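Why does this matter for the project? Reviewers at the last site visit asked to see concrete outputs rather than summary tables. In response, this paragraph embeds two records directly. Each consists of the residue sequence and, immediately after it, the corresponding structure tokens. Nothing has been edited or filtered.
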Amino acid sequence: MKKNMIVGQSGGPTAVINGSLYGVVSAGLNKTDDIEHVYGMINGIEGFLHDTIMDMRPLLESKELELLKTTPGSYLGSCRYKLPEDLSDPVYPTLFQKFDALQIGYFFYIGGNDSMDTVSKLSRYAASIESPIRFIGVPKTIDNDLVMTDHTPGFGSAAKYVASTVREIAVDASVYDNKKSVTIVEIMGRHAGWLTAASILARKFEGDNPVLVYLPEANFDPEDFISKVETALQTTSNLVVCISEGIHDQTGIFICEYASNVGTDTFGHKMLSGSGKYLENFVKDRLGVKVRSIELNVCQRCSSAMLSETDLSEAVSSGAFAVDAAISGETGKMIAFSRVSDSPYELRFTTEDVNHICNQEKTVPAEWIIRDGSDLSDDFITYARPLIEGEVNIPKENGLPKFAYRKH
């Protein structure tokens, strides 16, 4: 007997999160022997609790489905809703009553660490009541911090954006090479510095900007930082420094906390910003040179202008693979990427137990961080370069990008 499937998106968007959605939906619509209807959750599991869903087939009929691949943001909307730890909480029977009412047999959730936590809880509750619904997580995050996978969809395009933008910032800074200046670029990354590490892809030659790169995987010493900046200014008059928002001192205090208190989100994560501004004032006070700080902020995740073809292709394929995995009987799994080789770059998809993935973080290997925590080795370049390759042709209308917009 055919069942229906439902898909949702959660957490912060990436440039290819809708590529994964396209992969899931298009594969689901094609599996007519197993799947009757394909539904989308508007605003994730939180929206589903309020019965906000949509039928995805009209997107195929209107030809908007193809536009999803290059549409930024989360087409279905997102949420940061945390399911209770206690599986006896009344929210679980409520959810499964709603699943049963829609005759859901397959559930897909596209998201990062916290979204995999949702998949874990739902699959464990399903097992406890012997529900036949199959739950699969489709990875996404620009932070690239999910364990048990080589990388995540979204990281490649964000890394390409960071490298390209830092390159432009470095060229802009160089026009005033007769006066010393420091530009500090703050990049997303609370505990994992993958995205900040991508800034070294902006370099064109030995000693090129960004000269100094700081990740949260290594303790940050303000005095050592000032010393390195002062030394670097002797050979690079327009210095560019890239830092992760989550850099911290040896006691674990975030550098942004030196200047102010920070709040927390619904998952208990500290909301970090201001490390760049703090260091801007610190350098200005100590060295008396021209300093500016730039926070790349949401542009790192929302820009589709620099989509990586590799990233988009993998996002679409991972979504389709998720549907095949569910139909074949898998549940409580996340789609993982296994790298076969660097050159030529080759990848294969696998499934991993989501219970071993959620609430874990993959950080940049310590052996890749060099020069007392201020730079990275060529190993990172070998790892990251294939993920940013290729250009994507974005459909245009009246000279502007053409996107898919959900009808309200």
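We now turn to the second protein, recorded in exactly the same manner.
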Amino acid sequence: MAHHQILIVGGGAAGITAAAQLKRARPALAVTILEPSSNHYYQPGWTLVGAGVFSLEETRRAEADLIPAGVTWIRDAVAGFDPDRNLVSTASGQSLSYDVLVVATGLQLCWDKIKGLPEALGQGGVCSNYSQHHATYTWDTLQAFKGGQGAAGNAVFTCAPMPIKCPGAPQKIAYLAADVVAKKRLAAKVIYATATPGIFGVPVYAAPLREVVKRKGIDARYNHVLTEVRPQSREAVFKVSEGETSREEVIGYGMLHVTPPMAAPQVVADSPLAAASGFVEVDKFSLQHTRYANVFSLGDVSGMPNSKTAAAVRGQAPVLVANLLSLLDGQPLAAAYDGYSCCPLITGYGKAIMAEFNYEQQPVPSFPLDPTKERWSMWWIKRKLLPGLYWNRMLTGAQHERRFIPGLKG
């Protein structure tokens, strides 16, 4: 049995960022990442892949090139957690013991929870930016979309019930598609059918987004949960909640962009680490497990009530690192995560709202500008600046850049 001082399960954005910050803080720490994937993707870029701005290859790097110097990489998948014995089992049959465990596995996409979707996806106008296998097909579908009368003219975009990663992504592609439709002067209707009761969960940003919907002529339908895709008849079936009752609504489509339901990976949900939700049960401020003191979690799999974005990891990682080191030193855990998250809400080609906020749904902008305004500058940041910051600063353990911006608190 191999023993590890700090074992990080998951080598995505959260796991690598945490590992890099730990090694920056204390180079002598023995840090191990357990991760099966050979490729690492910049998933926030997939909206722009689906919009024809990025190629998929631009969002990919080799995992081996991203593992921080001095960190051990075990290329294997987690198969089970036994926190009572400080053990993790792997798919290949290894048993790994640890002093401290960090769970950063991310989410799983539940395509099969929508009847007919797995068979329909990637053909017949059914696409999704949530998969590296299908994001390029979104752009192919948008280019091929001809509009028309009736159902053939419907470009339908869905949003699954929360929690999902990058909650703004389902509407971003709808706004970009509306621009394509307008530029081509197609006879078409863009329909945004979302499971949520409103356009966005943070009121101060929801207000300008409602204006975007109105300006672009998008048909926004709320409390719509996609339950089935019928590719033969090109129909999407929704369960629509209306107060205490619900009804079924069938919407025909010419193209259909689907956001699948999401959940914690089954190996996490079935473990003693999980809350009733299936996500890792941690204190929302300290990121420490509520029952196992030597377990922490960050990123999409953690059970904090924050918006699940890559940017949230930048708020979480410094807190996790500080508290993990305090635990090793036998000191009180003093660092606290405020729920920081960021969603660059692309509202069209050349426009974006940089929505940054905390647990209290208060704006916490990184720029001394009104954060609720659509700006070309924020589009430029999303398209040009953020990918480089992700690869070259976030994954190397650098702190958030807001500390360098005049007029803001670090």
